[in-house]
Amino acid sequence: MKHNIFFTSDHHFGHANIIKYSQRPFGSVEEMNEEMIRKWNEKVGKRDLVYHLGDLSLAPTIDTKNILDKLNGKIFLIKGNHDKTTITYPKRFEWIKDFYELNVDDADAPNGKQKIVLLHYAMKVWRSSFRGTWHLYGHSHGHLQDDETSRSFDVGVDCHDFYPLSYEEVKVIMLKKKWKNPFEGEIRE
Fold this sequence. Notes:
The protein is α/β, with parallel strands linked by helices. Helix content is 22%, strand content 22%.
């Protein structure tokens, strides 16, 4: 059975100051938490795979556990710099890592696999970036200017109306970029 794949980052559940810092359109932490849970579950099914690229929750441990129990999907966590309470509930995650290189079956990708480098932080270069490997990140809350020539972008909720992005949505964004293979047309021995 094929599962849908989603990517997201930087929910900052329970973090009152993020409303002001990121100019989020919520009147309270409770409203923010409820709306982000609703938007997550609107797109993500119970069996879908979600790669969360960090800073999931700054809420107290019990509140974080309650929020995580409400979220659909099998969650894979790439740790951010604000995941102290998030990682106190490790059984909710398929795994918790600092960094991950994901391969997604995709007939349109080279060799039928799209490689994606997942890290909380943005990188200028990453393994096989010159071959079209994608890089997804968070942390910047939309404040880092997107590079149209790079197959990377911020999947944080502040950039995507507080929704996770499906693999298909990510693919559309990536393929619209002006990235060029630096070795295209070059004869290599």
